[in-house]
Write a sequence for this structure.
DNA sequence: GGGGCTTGTGAGAGCGCTCTCAAGGATGTA
DNA sequence: TACATCCTTGAGAGCGCTCTCACAAGCCCC
């Protein structure tokens, strides 16, 4: 687990919590057609005048400083509430040199229709990203930070301007896999704190990943030792994805220990997506390629597509071919057969990423450039284990 | 479809796109241990000095104004590139009175473990929200806007301070279902442009929804006319969700036309989640309640839980009971049997929400307070239609 | 009762941009 | 050559905050 403050840091700034814009009060007329009055936005000067104090005092009360006497404080809080004042974030940020915003960037697939309507919302292959982001968001909330969410299209090869723009709007950046090249990351990280997820550490940025090596190793051993697979294919993700490369290497090395044959290569390359997985299998079957005993996919999404394509061609999983994934996204438990996979602590990855980034923003120098979180093999039906079998496979250290 | 500019509005501001922080250039040393130089952040003054011009000229070049001569422009662009300058978003926002940020708020379930490990990542019930947000984000990107993402815990009954804080950091707000009471929305909307999704329109905010009425009506007619269901249960979402209330009403009215019995009420109330759906079914079965011919669920997530609970108790779907959902989230196509549901144009909902909000931010007064997007019944296996049947059911106007 | 404290408050200088306004130089017209 | 006009550039105000510093008031002690 990631250490987290149960109480927000801003608990001290309690004036903020009680006085601002009372959105939770009694009912008001909701449908009256009266148009919004186009008053100029309120400033701290309006509040100060209304309360009969200086703007410095208003600022002090709003930021929970100890100094103002109760009487002054009350006057200010009353004025704030009566006027419905909300301080401007940009002005605060400019003055205090802290935006309380971190930017999160992920790479998304184009909206073009995929090969198969079953996988129509190709955005679904972002389930992993979404769950990570949720973890980031919750951790950020504990510190009063918010997420500035942006994405880079998969075929956008010059994301620099967009990312530079985000850097200007935030205090630090969280980059998902394959958003920027390592060189680009270094250049960015020289200007602003950067943490990457499932990427590569650089001299200036920290990377956070699940334990690809341990997880994939346990999974392959399970396939070989328990299910006696004599041939295993690795269906990779993007060729330039560090995670996929690492997973591939472990498959090779582990299989080699048992003299098990590994099949991989250009024909066995998906794009981390269900569509990609299905396309690979269909192409192989069309060309008459025989299926191996097991197909280890680079992630769950790919495995979903593999499952679908195999079953549509009359193959039985796990009878004819065993299929495994990686990540344990929620849907892995809803397919038939349920997917055997490696469970990553997805939300924790996000939370830890934020915590590290936060400490960098606070001026601490991270002592590790690469953080690895433990994972766990989860055996279910798709590898041939009975559905009733124990849900988790103890990690061999 | 939602109208969208293919070309970003900022295409004119091309200097920005070409000069800033060249993250896409040639490779640099990625792992050299040399620490980041802790230089003070660059400002427009540094650029001006380096280029031998005034800050006004730098600003002009950066914002793509026509005036500066090519020579001056080049000098500035070179200085920007050499220094790796990124303008500060807060200062820009303060001066130009535009942050180019919209805040998006959704309500999320607590992290507490659910009843059943199959639904362990309860966050999965946010698939709908995630896909909407993706639509928002893509539409926003076309206008140079970014998303400030935040959430409110499901049991947080005073989200006011958090939301006020977000209002200060953004130009407008997009609220998902059940984030704020209608009164709270009005108060907020008097200060800042607000669009709600699947909520209620107010005098000051615009709401965007799928066509609950048409969609649910078609679905119920399908169950009655094609599958001759004589009793239909409506498994509702949160009691205070406008969408759920509307869907319930339509189920009742449509069934009444055919003299079909509708079952609903406190015992048939989920929380839009798989866990909630499973819990309801288990409780009913435990208490000896007989199942109706069909269960129409308030959303897909609930239907997933219902499917799971029924099958675990030995019921056959659709043989014994037919089950339907609403939304057509991606996983609906991956369960067995595939889920019959009402397809909402989820991503379009998000895109349209942004477009409306953007026009409000631009000062336009929306001419509609309530926008409804068409939906479509999708018949699959869970209602008893063969899996091979045509994937979509033409909407009867 | 005066000097030294502490404590609460206000004045005002930035923070890093954008944009108005005026000045200067180049060009055109009489 | 003198003067009006256009185009480019620079000076500087202002955006709405935070925070430092100086001051005023109240308190203590001798």
């Amino acid at each position: 687990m990631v250490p987290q403050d149960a109480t927000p840091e801003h608990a001290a700034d309690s004036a903020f919590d009680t006085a601002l814009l009372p959105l939770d009060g009694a009912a008001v007329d909701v449908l009256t057609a009266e148009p919004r009055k186009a008053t100029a936005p309120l400033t701290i000067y309006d509040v100060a005048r209304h309360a009969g104090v200086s703007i410095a005092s208003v600022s002090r009360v709003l930021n929970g400083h100890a100094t103002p006497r109760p009487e002054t404080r009350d006057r200010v809080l009353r004025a704030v509430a009566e006027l419905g004042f909300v301080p401007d974030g940009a002005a605060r940020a400019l003055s205090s040199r802290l935006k309380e915003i971190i930017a999160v960037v992920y790479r998304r697939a184009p909206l073009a229709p995929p090969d198969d309507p079953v996988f129509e919302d190709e955005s679904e292959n972002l389930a992993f990203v979404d769950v990570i982001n949720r973890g980031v968001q919750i951790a950020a909330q504990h510190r009063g930070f918010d997420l500035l969410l942006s994405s880079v299209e998969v075929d956008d090869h010059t994301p620099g301007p967009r990312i530079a723009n985000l850097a200007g709007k935030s205090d630090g950046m969280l980059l998902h896999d394959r958003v920027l090249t390592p060189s680009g990351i270094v250049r960015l990280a020289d200007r602003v704190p950067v943490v990457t997820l499932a990427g590569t550490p650089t001299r200036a940025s920290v990377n956070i990943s699940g334990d690809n090596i341990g997880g994939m190793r346990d999974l392959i051993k399970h396939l070989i030792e328990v299910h006696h697979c004599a041939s295993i294919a690795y269906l990779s993700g993007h060729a330039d994805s560090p995670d996929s490369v690492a997973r591939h290497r472990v498959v090779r090395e582990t299989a080699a220990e048992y003299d098990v044959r590994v099949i991989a290569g250009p024909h066995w390359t998906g794009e981390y997506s269900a569509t990609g997985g299905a396309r690979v299998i269909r192409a192989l079957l069309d060309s008459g390629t025989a299926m191996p005993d097991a197909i280890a996919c680079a992630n769950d999404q790919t495995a979903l597509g593999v499952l679908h394509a195999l079953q549509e061609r009359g193959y039985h999983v796990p009878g004819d071919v065993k299929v495994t994934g990686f990540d344990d996204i929620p849907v892995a438990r809803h397919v038939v057969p349920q997917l055997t996979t490696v469970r990553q602590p997805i939300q924790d990855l996000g939370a830890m990423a934020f915590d590290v980034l936060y400490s960098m923003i606070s001026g601490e120098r991270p002592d590790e450039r690469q953080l690895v979180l433990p994972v766990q093999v989860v055996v279910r039906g798709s590898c041939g284990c009975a559905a009733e079998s124990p849900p988790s496979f103890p990690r061999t250290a």
